[in-house]
Amino acid sequence: MTIETKKRYGFSTRAIRSGEEIDFREGATGDVIVPIHLATTFAREKVNIPTAGYEYTRLLNPTRKALETKLAALENAKYGLTFSSGLAAETTILLSLLKSGDHIVAFDDLYGGTKRLFNQIFGEYNISVTYVDATDVSRLEEVIQTHTKLIWIESPSNPLLKICDIRAIATVAHENNLLLVVDNTFLSPYFQKPLDLGADIVIHSSTKYIGGHSDVLGGAVLLNDDANYERIQSLQIAVGAVLSPFDSYLTLRGVKTLALRMEQHQKNALEVANYLSKHPKVSKVIYPGLDNHPQHKLANEQSSGHGGVFSFELKGTVADAENFLENLKLFVLAESLGGVESLIELPAVMTHASVEKEDREKVGITDTLIRVSVGIEDIKDLIQDIEQALGSLK
Ligand code: P1T
Question: Rounded distance, CA 321 to CA 337, Å?
Fold first, then answer.
């Protein structure tokens, strides 16, 4: 199927059918889903001819290939690659596109693990990063240097839900001969397609909404450019950062309901965010779906929804925030996001603990900022849980 043929089908049709064409050939069984191909190696009859292109699972595996085809169809991408985690995807991009002496311009509000990878790992290999507030496009232009190769953003960002103007940043990137990488984990391709807005590479932690059930770690890279695809793919094979057949199957299974889940995540998130906004013990709620979010208009223009993650500040001390989190009975106190169950956490001591306190404070991650990933449970149960946990605070 070409990209054009795929585009004829709606999002959920592609989520269910793309990559899993039914095999009616002589001897085939007509499975309606792609099987889990656990074989690590594939036999051939002729020395020089791999059977149907398969040689060894690190290079290519039919279950992984089905997922890669499906995710490419969902992001309107020509190519998809899947990895053993989001960070494995990021590492492979950096290793394949950069060399010692190169420079990255990155948004200053990124997942803590991404900053750790940039600073502590790639810093050792003489790859430097300048972090800027990418919500202001002119700030990006100011820090581009002759050795800059990439601009790297999240939109919405983790954990402050800041929105970047993807189209404007893509223009700046291309005027300066740079590639724009967008981490689309928070919205998933259901609500936002950065390649259509001009980005060069989209990455996902598919551990989150794409997998959707908190039971499979994974990463994905989606892109259109032939040469960059070949570079990233050959490096992935060389370092072996691939998604396993079983994890590919779990992700294939999860992504089929992405549209249904995202709609419900968003509906519940808006209700919980609205409830908290009116609560006397809450000082601030940050959710791009609320019209008081500073980039609500831009968010509405470049995405078709706002997802299920938001952050908020309680009035009071760190001890109050900890008491609130520990008093919840239904919301699960845990890192990660995007699963069907509601998760809640304190970024300063959990997901963003690897970012220096000074750097956290510069971008606005206070010690009392709470991040919520609203699940798809019954909304009345979620509100009741928050109500009782807030009620138990003095
Ligand atoms: O955990 P992994 O699959 O390796 O993905 C890393 C990653 C990349 N990008 C974003 C935007 C992310 O949020 C993450 C992982 N984030 C969490 C575990 C978290 O709780 O924020």
Answer: 19
> Residue 4 pLDDT > 90, yes or no?
no
Instruction: Give the torsion sign (CA, 32, 35, 41, 44).
Output: negative
Q: For the chain, what are the domain ranges?
A: 3-255, 258-391
Q: Does domain 258-391 have CATH number 3.40.50.720?
A: no
Spatial strand order in the sheet of 332-333:
282-286, 309-314, 369-373, 343-345, 332-333
Bin 274: left if φ > 0, else alpha if -120 < ψ < 50, else beta.
alpha
Q: Determine the distance separating the centroid of ligand 1 and the alpha carbon of 111, expressed in angstroms.
A: 6
**pLDDT for the residue numbered 5:** 53
| Architecture of the domain whose range is 3-255 | 3-Layer(aba) Sandwich (3.40)
Site to probe by mutation for ligand 1, drawn from 116, 202, 204, 205 as the one with most ligand atoms within 8 Å of Cβ, is 205
Is 351 near ligand 1, meaning CB less than 6 Å away?
yes
- Whether 3-255 shares its CATH topology with 258-391 is answered no
pLDDT, tens only, 255-264: 999 999 999 9
- Collapse the DSSP code of 137 into the 3-class scheme (helix H, G, I; strand E, B; otherwise coil) and give the result: helix
Measured from the Cα of 114, ligand 1's closest atom is 8
Which pTM value belongs to this model?
0.97
The whole-number average pLDDT for the span 347-351 is: 94
Q: Is the CB of 311 under 6 A from ligand 1?
A: no
Instruction: Tell whether ligand 1 has an atom less than 6 A from the beta carbon of residue 355.
Output: no
Q: Is the CB of 219 inside a 6 Å radius of any atom of ligand 1?
A: yes
Name 67's Cβ contacts closer than 8 Å, sequence gap at least 6: 19, 80, 82, 243, 248, 251, 252, 255
Tell me 196's DSSP state. Answer: G
